[in-house]
Amino acid sequence: MAEPKWLQEMNRDEYIKEDFDAAGKSVAGTTVDGIDKNDPEWLDKAAKKVNAAEGDDYVKLDSGLLTVNQLNWMLQNTIGELTFVDDNNQFLWYNRPKDPNAKMKAKRTPDQVGDTMKAIHPDVRDVIPNAKKVVHALRTKEGGHDDVYMPVPTGNLKELVLHYYKRVEDDKGNYIGIYEWVQDLYPLVKYFCETTGQKLVVDEDATTGATYRSNSDPDAATGASTKAAAAEEEKKEEKPDASSGASEH
Fold it and tell me: Biased-composition ranges for Basic and acidic residues (predicted)?
């Protein structure tokens, strides 16, 4: 993902200390003890232990009164993928898609709920260090930032995937976790452009986003077409197969 410059410049020695084993407790006092965090049945076991509200039980919110079912239905139909990780780096919730066959941009499964951050991130390349960087940045409000925008280069300007991370605070301003919102923005941008008569184009004079643009083909209609691939196609056209007229690649 494309990190903002201020995030790239963070001190690795500091953010790598983030405890992704979730060995501590939430400052809000909401950590459920006595249950293995990585137990695939954590949700049911933890809910039973704390006698959690469910179904038609009402939940009084700061600006509304809804049943647990109503909250679930609303969040299932909310645009984008939402997740919540607490300040102890424990993955506690995501808005499970209403369609069980829906393909998620950032795939999560019910059995992962309750897992540590270490368990839900693959230990390959720099995945875990980069995740620790984001968490630590928001935990400490690095440079005054309380959110992180990370566009994902897909090689196609018809698919504008964004990962947005937001610091969550209690009423006293204490850090209590992060919610992540993942969404392909292109359908929204496309609708906006069609409705207002505007157009999405590449700004050749822009001083930022060069890495993202270099992997994207502004003329791509579908798929993961890239400028590199287009250049390769041009080379093929310049060198026709003399023996058959049909190059094999």
Answer: 230-249
What residues does each domain of the chain span? 5-191, 202-238
Q: Which amino acid is at 23?
A: A
pTM (2 d.p.): 0.82
What stretch of H or E contains 18? none
Phi, psi of 152 (to 5 degrees): -105, 115
CATH 3.30.450.20 for domain 5-191:
yes
> What are the pLDDT digits (tens) for 130-184?
999 999 999 999 999 999 999 998 888 789 999 999 999 999 999 999 999 999 9
Which ranges of 54-209 would DSSP assign to H, the alpha helix? 68-76, 117-120, 127-140, 186-196
Ramachandran class of 82: left when φ > 0, alpha when ψ lies in -120 to 50, beta otherwise: beta
